[in-house]
Every structure is written in C-alpha cells, then in structure tokens.
Design brief:
Double Stranded RNA Binding Domain; Ribonuclease iii, N-terminal Endonuclease Domain, Chain A
Length: 274
C-alpha cells in the first residue's frame, strides 16, 4: 500500500485558506448560473472535452475544476468574466503533485539506484519537453480555451502551454478524484517514457557493474564485433563477450554501442544466476 504524505498537507493548506475544492466549485457554479463568459463560454465541458477525459480514464465528479484546467490565461485576457480562473494556480499545484508521484514511484521501484540517479530520472520525466509531448499525443491541446492571439500563433502546440495544461490537469484530477486516480493518470501517461528511460539507464549501469566483476579477476571486458547484417540504412551489429568463466554471450542491436550495453546486461544476469 502506497503512503502519500502530501495529501493531508494539501488538505490542511486548502482548509486554512478557506478555499477547499468543493467550496470553490460550488461558488463558481452559483455565480455562473445566469452568466456565461462572453456568451460563448459556459461553465460546462464540451463533448470533445468529455470524450478526452473518458479516453484518459478520468470520470469527473465536478466539471468546473476541469474547465479551469483547460483555460489558458490568454483566453481570460479577452473574456472579462471573473467566475472562471485560468489554469495557472492549478499548474502550480499539479507540478507539486506530479513531482511527488514520480519521486515515490522511483523510490519504491528502483531502490538499488542512488539519489543522484533518481533525481536525474525525475528531472527528465517531468521536464517541459516530456510533458508537452505527452499532452500533444493524448490530444490535450485540442481541449484548451485559448485567446485569439495564441490560436493564431499555434498555441495548441506550444511547449510551454501544453506543459502547463498537463500539470493543471494532474492538479484537477487530484482535487476532484484524489491521489489514487492522480497516480494512475500520471503513471499511465508516462508509462512509455518511464520504461524507455529506466531500461536504458539499467543497461548502462549493468555495463559498469560488469566491469567491476571483471576487474576483481584482474581482467577487462572485451566486446568483440562478430558480424554486421541487414541493409546499409538499417544494419544489425552482433557483439560477443567472453566471461571470466569462459562462457560466451552474444547480443545484436542497431548500433555497436547498444549491442555492447545489451550483451553486458545479459552477461550480468548470467553471472548472477550462477
């Protein structure tokens, strides 16, 4: 069972400030009862936005918090209705939730790695380029309320806007549905990025660990290129490594460097098995 120390802290902050998510949503809903934003923006989610949330496995209880998550400040600069806020505060909040979720996941699942490695991984996973790429891939940009200027300047594909929208959405999920749902959304969204990053780093670490084993035998691992196959534009390199025991391990990849990393990982697994 996961332990989420942030949750009581966030509840305390919101309670002390008198701005609980439920109270804020109720207030916004009441104020919007007879008033839409500039006659084109009503406090309800569009069919496109609801479809987006469904595809993201988000079943909202309170719609207004998601409208806020979808609302960029440029839109409100052109619409003076004050009953809907931009997503800037949610962005701030969601950034903290995201960092905690990734930190806990890495801490719980990669206990053999140092603080420096985990910090590096977390930075790569929560950086703007990563978040904006995910937001673009899941179609978040198409759900945003943007000002005319941002529309003209291709704001729906703007890295900064998409990063902020992703963080805002994470904050909205947490406030509406709780930490468990926020964790699922974040880890599902970042699943491929986490796997690619950690698999690559684990392979690199295996090469260094293997070298230590060889050095204990006064040896150095020697990676031998055995063959090159495939077309010129997409070659496959076969690399062989002989272990101190005399056993041979082979692996192939699209580059010699990657083949060496893979063969090192396989060699290390073989040594540990024996």
């Amino acid at each position: 069972m996961s332990y989420y120390p942030f949750k009581p802290i966030f509840i305390l902050i919101y309670s002390c400030s008198g701005v609980s998510s439920g109270r804020r949503l109720k207030t916004v809903s009441t104020e919007n009862k007879n008033n839409s934003i500039n006659k084109t923006f009503t406090a309800s989610l569009s069919k496109k936005q609801l479809t987006f949330l469904k595809n993201a496995n988000i079943e909202p209880n309170e719609h207004t918090i998601y409208i806020e998550a979808f609302t960029h400040s440029s839109f409100l600069n052109e619409h003076q209705d004050k009953t809907i806020a931009s997503n800037e505060r949610l962005e701030f909040f969601g950034d903290a939730i995201l960092e905690f979720i990734i930190s806990e996941y890495l801490y719980e699942n990669f206990n053999e790695f140092s603080e420096g490695t985990l910090t590096s991984w977390r930075s790569q996973l929560i950086r703007g380029n990563t978040l904006s790429a995910i937001a673009k891939n899941i179609g978040l940009g198409d759900c945003l309320f943007l000002g005319k200027g941002e529309e003209i300047n291709n704001g729906r594909n703007n890295i900064s806007i998409l990063e902020g929208a992703m963080e805002s959405l994470i904050g909205a999920v947490y406030l509406d549905l709780g930490m468990t749902h926020a964790v699922k959304f974040v880890l599902n969204s970042l699943e491929d990025e986490i796997k690619n990053l950690t698999d690559n780093e684990i392979i690199i670490d295996a090469k260094g660990e293997l070298q230590k084993i060889f050095q204990a035998e006064n040896l150095m691992p020697e990676y031998v290129l055995k063959s090159t196959d495939g077309p010129e534009h997409s070659p496959q390199y076969l690399v062989e490594l002989i272990l101190p025991s005399g056993a041979k391990v082979e692996a192939s990849a699209g580059t010699i460097q990657n083949a060496e990393k893979i063969v090192a990982k396989q060699a290390l697994e073989l040594i540990k098995e024996n």
